[in-house]
Amino acid sequence: MNGIELVGQFLQSMRAELLAEDVFFQALARISGREAVLRHLTGNDVYRKAAWSPPQADGERVKVTGRLPAGSASAGLILVFELAGGRISAIRQQPLFGGAAAPAAPLKLTEELKSLVDNALATRHPMIVAYVDAGGQPILSFRGSTQSFGDEQLAIWVRNSDGNFLSAIAKNPRVALMYRDEDSKATYQFQGRARVSRDEEVRRRIYGKMAQRERDHDAARTGVALLIDLDRVEGFAGMSPDGPVGKVRMLREAGK
Fold first, then answer.
1. Does the pLDDT at position 72 exceed 80?
2. pLDDT tens-digit profile of 201-251?
3. Strand bridging mode 87-96 / 19-26
4. pLDDT, tens digit, for every residue of 158-175?
5. How far apart are CA 254 and CA 230, in angstroms?
6. What is the distance between the alpha carbons of residues 65 and 96, in angstroms, rounded to a whole number?
7. 15 with 88, same domain?
8. Torsion over CA: 159, 163, 165, 170 (sign)
């Protein structure tokens, strides 16, 4: 039996004996062993719902494409089979891009998201801020003082009141921020409009909430309080072998 026939039979029957004892399944996470791999494939609806293409040779490997029904969150997936000794020795999965966008919820930061942002520096996942300078050049910078400020805003303490960051947002207030935890794979992007606040109570709150190491860099409290009115928050809490889990998609205008 050649590789194409072997993969075709496996997809139709899911017979355990067509898998090697030490087979592994690799997506964003790795599953090892015949029983574990078979349990994953037979216990997950996505593989039953997919319309599979005929197996195709891809060098020494065999590839199949599974397309999910219209309206699904994902367009589908590709499985690449590796063969050894007349059995399937490895299955590698990657997603097809596309699919229906998740419905948007009204923008309101959850307590979990607030906690991630507020503790980003302490957990060694400092927030990255993107803005556009006067010449139209996108700029990225780490901002350890980034924090939640209510349900619809983030805030930053900007130590350099004469820096390019503040002059840039005076002309173009649109900014984006990114949070990423490589261990959990939690990934969130925040988009909004930044503005300086001269309100002394706002300044006091932002300065007082940021980490001590950040306050130590501006003991004289000469910095500027920056508020970011959020328009969009998107991301996910982590990854499973089948893709993102705990998806979040919030829009300021959703539900209005």
1. no
2. 999 999 999 999 999 999 999 999 999 999 999 999 887 755 678 889 999
3. parallel
4. 998 778 999 999 999 999
5. 13
6. 9
7. yes
8. positive
Q: Residue 253: phi, psi to the nearest 5?
A: -90, 0
72 part of a folded domain:
yes
- Does the pLDDT at position 91 exceed 60? yes
Q: Tell me the pLDDT tens digit for each residue of 122-181.
A: 999 999 999 999 899 999 999 999 999 999 999 999 998 778 999 999 999 999 999 999
Find the domain containing 55 and state its range. 3-96
- The pLDDT of residue 6 is 95
Domains of the chain: total = 2
Does 43 fall in a domain? yes
Length of the chain, in residues: 256
Task: Indicate whether 137 belongs to any domain.
Answer: yes
In a domain, 184, yes or no: yes
Say how many Å lie between the first and final Cα of the chain, rounded. 60
B/e letters for 24-59, b = 16+ CB within 10 Å, e = fewer, are bbbbeeebeebeebbebbeeeebbeebebeebeeee
Q: Are residues 129 and 42 in the same domain?
A: no
pLDDT at position 116, please?
96
pLDDT at 242: 59
Tokens representing residue 4 in the block: 């194409």
Shared-domain flag, residues 37 and 136: no
- Among residues 115, 85, 106, the alpha carbon closest in space to that of 254 is found at 106
